[in-house]
């Protein structure tokens, strides 16, 4: 052992955890403890320093540092007292008033926290002494939590006082911290681990404060860490103590219960977990209470909230449960964490509770005439948790909140503390009340929430029929309905409806009779709905495109006695036993004089899907719908000048708004045929043709419409004044392209949230281009209450379940009284005792200004390998990728295992080649290959294409010898083969004009596909070039296409193919015997014959009017002289550059170069490094006036499906934890929609059974860094193998193992990797790249 090291021993698990967090955020001041105190009286500063030195010498913990580099696990070292340097700072603050002293103190504390201790250089403490008066000093003590806990602080200060006052003889010997480490290492943890495994079973997600940011933001001006203090008044503090005493509770149990309830309201869960600090000093270890060191432990406290239990009984159960847990409090948190079912790397809790009840006495210095009296002024330290709440027992119970400003802001923490005070007051006042009667809100706050709700709405005493008939009387000749070329005026609509109403009455329809309407979209549908009203009935819309089984169920469940059909749809209802009327049957048009419905009569029943899989019918009255239009009139300003579309199925409640919104205002209703609703370009045309002013869309449908409009050549001169969204959550990305083109003033885009059970719409928000898409505010007369699980209003900013009350709340479910009672509850907030509110299952929170913000559903999560996952979060992350236009994620069982499946729509224009590639490959099977830049091309055979790709893209052989590609280059590609050179040209210059000459039909077919996929506007020339017009026989080698040609001869080509094969195989370490090689050569030289046309190049130049050719590329096996012979003298000056592959047989190379020199070219001759043993050369010819290189075309990043998917997977891994990453990825042309414009989950499930585009398969590490890193992971994690895409945490890694990996990397790779890199780059490939980047900056970090 070194003379400078007195002792060395392992860390306690607590210290290991703290060390990790300190290394993870090294400059944040985390786990620095600061105490400040006054010393009043005479003070000998030298004597004080000497007293501190004696105490440091007395306790090894105060002379401890920490080392970890190169070690299997971190160790703590104790140095001799002479080597333990403690920094002192002095200052004179005399003359400062109290305010300035406080300001100076706070500034000093903040500055002090920014200075991290060198952890390997004890002591890990420092002191500052400021003289504030003649007999008064301020002492600031900063010490690291790695070496001592709060319990140790008064022990240390007492000893300092004893040494200062020469009372050291009274000090008893204290056991060293090493004894605790030995005790802990010897302890049997089996029973403790079993307890915690049972205690935490099923808990998979930390419980968070509702205001907490999901991802860290920027720290506040005061720094990363801040704190806030409040206290309860004396009356409440006394009441809490009395309650605790009366109910036989500890005050700790009371505050833990209050915190659990607060977390339950904030998280919406009845099962919550938070952390609680315990002293960690085992009673089994003699003298533990008097030891100096880091003992404190944090334990998870899991609490189940039982709403109907009394507060006192529930708290007693909590106390008993905690008493049991305290038996196992010495099990370190890191081991408790391993017992939980949380995803690796996820903390057990985000909030920590503590009680400051360690004995910090004020008489530690006795204050004699020869010495000072000490008085503690304050103390603080900051954990790595977003929020730590400390309770200080005093006459007034104090609450000290320490928070991370990157996760929480000051106002939010203040709200939490206010809510906690209110809750404690409620609990103290009435401990026998039930839990559900507690609230985080004061009476005045509850009243303020009620006052914020909209005023009551006077609803006109009319029906929908009354309103439509008023328009019939007022404007009978105005067009009411349009369907294709057919239209009806209001008078005509009235007459046809009257005739049908007579038939309905004759069939037995009377008031509130339910009439099924099974009609396709068209004028007959609107006539039928109005006729049902005229007959006094209510309509049940049935979509004729639905499966017959579903139609049969709806008819049975509804018990509708009459069905209206079209002669074409009558056969859809074979099992219907009621009366069927065909609306297109002849009938007499008569004046209707029958009875009419009342406002409280049923208007319609629309079925919605049920959570149990059984659809349920929602009963809506005329009064509900009339109230809807009255509530929205002030801002919609609907009138007879509007033109609406019926875009949605009548079985979707959005259609109620569309149909009756048009007709009750005397407007025109344009019925959109179903095929047009699924054809966005055609629908866009219809909007223009019909001059539509009011458009209603789901966000999914609107996305497709916007894309179609963006592609329109003639612009979009619309007449829209309102676009209203509903049916789905609206994302900013859905409307951003529209705003970019049309702005937000006209039309106004309005987001409306609604529910079938509350009559279509509940809230509205006028959208602007600020990127904000909230639900908005309730429409007039509608009240939206956000309630917690106990039925109480939640504070602003906290998510609660939406409960809707007001005139839009429907009558409940048809024939489902139990479900109606469950979902339609009495409204406790309404003055009318009979008023009901609907419990939606949707989640939202109120912003401070009263705007609602959507937060999903109560039942939206899925479980993947035990982890609860929000699919919408994954979809939002994937959709942020610039090459993804839309994403959908499903949880799907494959081979009995649940998987996340991603369906991705490549975007236009970023991934246009991928979209075109999909279209071509879906038609028939083709061989494809990815080029070095990720572009996917069609190929004839893989090995040859790989060779050409290396030659063209990797080696860039066509840009050697001084050859350039200017912008707007005219390029003539003779011997285009499959078009790789043309793709290369398109990537290296802007706006090229390419002529691709390829006579071979098999190659020409592949060439055409490659040009189409990559959008290259080349002119294909289906012939070869030669000295004169002719038709000749070409020899074609399917396995060596580049050698095909007019003079193809297997005997001549044998040496070339052999050289290529040998070089290719040897590069892979393969050596073949001669006989095997001969067999392979025979296969490669299989020949086909094709008759091909030959033309002189000058004829081609004349035919296409070419005045210049910037580059002529000639790659025609043994025909290069023939091609050159077809160029007339006057055309040579038009050709600026040539690249010619020459097979040097019979002096051909010399002939070609001599010809080029004679025509004024400078030449360079080079040989392809892959073909050095052959007679093949590349001749580069350039005229003196050849153009300079261009700017190069902007590269398309996503020209291939594999590159795109790899990029998206990497992108997703940067956005999401590993367990939220899909394992299967499928590219699709579009996300399928249902007839209502919503996502078609069933269709996606069918796609899930098809072959995915990509799967997360094993890929072996490549390169020295990846291989070395994989070996480290195998050793540290104890796994059999590690692949390139493997995630450190998914393989069982955690924070302590991460520190080991960092140490091994330092040894093996000679690089200092910051610990946080493992968390931000957890896959093998990502971490290897990070190491390589560090190597570039720091070649050797030693």
Condensed summary:
Keywords: Phosphopantetheine, Phosphoprotein. With 1342 residues, the protein is an alpha/beta fold.
Polypeptide structure, described:
- With 1342 residues, the protein is of the alpha/beta class.
- Among the domains are: 7-181, Chloramphenicol Acetyltransferase (2-Layer Sandwich), CATH 3.30.559; 187-350 and 385-440, Nonribosomal peptide synthetase, condensation domain (Chloramphenicol Acetyltransferase, 2-Layer Sandwich); 866-911 and 1198-1254, GMP Synthetase, Chain A, domain 3 (2-Layer Sandwich), CATH 3.30.300; 941-1182, Rossmann fold, CATH 3.40.50; 1263-1337, Non-ribosomal Peptide Synthetase Peptidyl Carrier Protein, Chain A (Orthogonal Bundle), CATH 1.10.1200.
- The chain contains 39 helices and 52 strands.
- The strands form 13 sheets. The chain has a 7-stranded mixed sheet, with helices on both faces.
- Helix 2 (45-58) crosses helix 4 and helix 20 packs across helix 21.
- The longest helix has 20 residues, at 410-429.
- The mean pLDDT is 87.
Q: Considering the protein shown, what is the CATH homologous superfamily of the domain at 941-1182?
A: Vaccinia Virus protein VP39
The percentage of residues in β strands lies in 15-25%
CATH topology label of the domain at 941-1182: Rossmann fold
* Largest sheet properties: 7 strands, mixed
Say how many strands there are. 52
Kindly report the average pLDDT value: 87
